[in-house]
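Hey, quick one: can you model this chain's 3D structure?
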Amino acid sequence: MKINTSINLAVRIIAVMALGLAYFSVYISPMQAQGFSVSFGRQEFVVEVGGTINGSVLVQNMHDEPLSVRVYLGEWLRNQEGASKYTLTEEIGLESRSLAAWMLYMPDQMTVESQGERSVLFEVRMPEDEILEGSYWGIIYVESIPDAESFDEIPVEGERRIGVRTIFRYAVQIYVTIEGTEIREASFTALNIEPAEGGFNVIAIFENTGNIHLRPEVWLEMTDIAGDVVYEQEHGKITVLPESAREFVFELRDLPIESGEYMVMIYADYGVPTLIAAQGRVNLTITPPEPEEEEPADPEEPAEAEDDTPSP
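Sure thing. Here's the predicted structure for all 312 residues.
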């Protein structure tokens, strides 16, 4: 597939190791965690200035043995250099919209019995400060505590070995928005079309210029020169923090369309009466895959002639 692109970057509003044994710990994301889960992984609240919020995080142990976990706070940092990725950190005080200074939680460590569950309780006390506006957020980490002697040994060169200790950790997101101060504004600031094996990628930059966190519905439509929609694709929801941007990437592969010129439109609904959109053009030359060369068959060996000599 050959691709020529013409991108309209203007955004339109559309009303529509050591010797012996070394060991290290490896953090595993929730999608990989086996037998350990946390419910209510994202919680959102609206409160007045000076209000108090109480909530809980349910920890479930599906193991056949008791599970010990520790609980601590962290932050989700916006990238101030314009990049579209955020950073989870255990450091406190780096994010100006952090809830960490106003959050209390208990316990900081607990044991969950086999096939059992326990809750982590938290409270957010918003200060009596009229300057507060928009959304604030914090992270509650729930992390498994491995046994001191629990690690898998991996042999390396000679007599050297590495011990790998697996730690499961969940990051629970807590959002608090100050009632009556919400400013909901956003736009697409760029759209890029990049060739890729078997197709191409469409990358749209969604910028949140308001003061609250957003989880927009974003989707792609391709139309032909007649204006008919020939392909659609939805993007999963992701959070875009205020005064920051994130990438929405659409991977288009083996599309059921013919060669020609197409309009690519990215739409976003972020909870206001009008949609926003970015557009680009792409010229596709669909080249069918070359047929695989068949290996020549081995010539058949001549059949052995039967021995018709009569037996003596």
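One thing worth noting: The radius of gyration is 29 Å.
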